[in-house]
Design goal:
- There is one protein chain.
- A three-stranded antiparallel β-sheet has the order 1-3-2. The protein has a three-stranded antiparallel β-sheet with strand order 4-6-5, with helices on both faces.
- The protein contains 18 helices and six strands.
- By secondary structure, it is mainly alpha-helical.
- A hairpin with a 2-residue loop joins strand 2 and strand 3.
Length: about 400
């Protein structure tokens, strides 16, 4: 019973925290419904940012009273609203549709990530009034969206988001992927086909919105490669030369479109059980497990693992205990997907390489002629006999 109470208390604490954040980011007034009224709630700096994004003429010089109608008129143009809506990620897009479907939406259960960007763009607004949270999409934008909904826009939006999710998943798994391989991967798993000419401008829009990946030369790469001016890209590509690419099913692949996703392997579960013997707080155990996975993915030195365990207060009373923990960590390392293995784990790659080895021939019958030292080796390696079995 106490466990249930603790769970309920935790749930209440989370909801209270979410509510406080929403109230802080809401307009503390009765809801308004016109675009001009909603824009009027913003300060000049916020309006100028919207004006800049929409390429409103003289957005930096117009007074607030003139900037508001200029932005409102621009936002009501179908092609410009289409571009603004393209910038919304799936969570923001779904919430926008939910709010746009009604006069106003009253809800306490929404994370700020669902509406912060749309609100900053003037696409919707959160209000705190009569101790309730109200969400409103301006009436004029609802009218324009209804027209867009009658075109190919909804399907086009879904396609663009899918391409972005594939790019995130590919970078999460591989770190680097050539545009040709990306297109081939996408086309192998989806009915609607694409090409490099199509993906480049679409993904560029997401890159401008800080997608976490970017283009470099012929590749799509993790944005972190910018830190060393992309020198690491060629090193990574060279390190996995000749290694096959790991390609899971479409459903499994798209799980990697969530940036912090990774497979919870049996080895991680075994390590979690062992960590729980040393650390009583389950949340701390999960945090340590996340960090161990990240260390494994970055191929960290052994000492870094022990430093992590030491910082978490893990104390070994014998060398046997320490050795057991280290063996579990090694098991995790061998079953962690690595960029240098093109998404394969070390264990998978070892099995693949082992399966390619040709078996040694049985004892040759006496009727077979003698092999010369410069002849091809009969084992099938392709080497000369003197360089192979004849050593």
């Amino acid at each position: 019973m106490s466990k249930q109470v603790n769970h309920d208390e935790l749930k209440k604490a989370v909801l209270d925290s979410v509510r406080k954040i929403n109230i802080k980011n809401a307009a503390h007034t009765a809801p308004v419904y016109s675009l001009a009224e909603i824009l009027a709630l913003k300060n000049v700096t916020e309006l100028q940012q919207i004006g800049k994004a929409l390429h409103v003429k003289y957005y930096g010089k117009l007074p607030k009273t003139e900037l508001i109608p200029a932005i409102a008129e621009t936002m009501k143009k179908e092609h410009l609203l289409r571009n603004l809506l393209y910038n919304l990620d799936e969570m923001e897009w779904e919430f926008f549709l939910k709010v746009a479907a009604t006069k106003h939406l009253l809800t306490e259960k929404v994370y700020i990530d669902s509406y912060y960007l749309p609100q900053s763009m003037g696409l919707l607004q959160c209000f705190y009034h009569n101790d309730k949270l109200w969400f409103v999409v301006p009436e004029e934008l609802k009218d324009v969206y209804r027209k867009l909904a009658e075109t190919d826009f909804p399907e086009d939006k879904r396609f663009r988001d899918l391409l972005n999710n594939y790019a995130i998943a590919a970078i999460s798994l591989y770190g680097v992927i050539s545009q040709d391989e990306f297109v081939a991967l996408f086309n192998s798993q989806n009915k609607r086909q694409t090409n490099i000419d199509e993906i480049f401008p679409i993904l560029l829009d997401y890159i401008y919105a800080d997608a976490g990946y970017c283009f470099w030369d012929e590749y799509i790469v993790d944005s972190d490669f910018e830190e060393d001016d992309f020198a690491g890209v060629q090193r990574l590509v060279s390190s996995r030369q000749g290694k096959p690419r790991y390609t899971p099913s479409r459903e499994e692949f798209l799980k990697y479109s969530v940036w912090d996703y990774y497979e919870v392997t049996p080895q991680l579960i075994a390590l979690k059980r062992q960590l729980s013997k040393f650390i009583t707080d389950p949340d701390t155990v999960l945090d340590i497990l996340d960090e161990i996975h990240d260390l494994s993915a970055s191929e960290a030195r052994t000492q870094e693992y022990f430093d992590l365990l030491d910082s978490a207060g893990v104390v070994f009373i014998s060398m046997e205990q320490a050795g057991e923990m280290m063996q579990l960590i090694v098991d995790v390392q061998n079953n962690t997907r690595l960029w240098c293995n093109y998404g394969h784990t070390p264990s998978e790659l070892f099995s693949l390489e082992k399966s390619k080895l040709r078996p040694l021939p049985a004892d040759r019958p006496k009727s077979i002629r003698e092999v010369g030292r410069n002849d091809p080796c009969p084992c099938g390696s392709g080497k000369k006999y003197k360089k192979c079995c004849g050593r």
